[in-house]
Amino acid sequence: MKLFIDTANLDEIKEAASMGILDGVTTNPTLLSREKMPFKQLLAEICKVVSGPVSAEVVALDAEGMVKEGEDLATIADNITVKIPITLEGLKAIKTLSDKGIMTNATLCFTSMQALLVAKAGATFVSPFVGRLDDISHYGMDLIQQIVTIYENYGFETEVLVASIRNPLHVVDSALIGADVATVPFKVINNLIKHPQTDLGLKSFLKDWEKVNKG
Ligand code: E4P
What we know:
It is a single chain. By secondary structure, this protein is of the alpha/beta class. It has a single domain (2-214), classed as TIM Barrel, CATH 3.20.20.70. The chain is 52% helix and 17% strand. The site of erythose-4-phosphate has 11 residues, from helix 7. Erythose-4-phosphate binds at residues 6, 26, 28, 107, 127, 129, 131-132, 163-164, 183.
């Protein structure tokens, strides 16, 4: 499973990249609003750090505007993936941009039928939001299972990118189901590596190392 980082913070992206586990980045308008750098400059910097897909979202609501914004974003770097909200207009924009060879990430996915339609339109990625479903007492991971099954049934090439991840168990479940990608906030990435038994074991090994006859 590929791991993307869900942030627009350059320091977090650099740190995750240095861990050797980073396959891409997802941003959205909320994440960009937390950063000081002008957003296009920031996206260009991010694309220099990470060679995998870097999602940047359009804000136009009509297909024509989305395509125009998407084409403009795609000039920033070859690895920009244009993030398009799943609406009727978004569907048209996904089709147009995909036909032009521009990578797309269909975002704000909350049903398996939305996922089916964006795959038919040629989206590179679909982003189902598990955390936001959990927030309203729906099992977000059930949606991931449905989409993975439907895509397998028909051989769709659209990659399932699990978004709105809030904790390590979302990442575990994504991997067990066989999602293609999980986009994970920096804090959760750090929590994936930690285990108290690892810390305790290391402490005890280092203590015992002091007693070793070093010749
Ligand atoms: C990334 O593609 C999504 O925009 C992001 O994961 C949403 O996460 P949130 O629900 O925690 O805002």
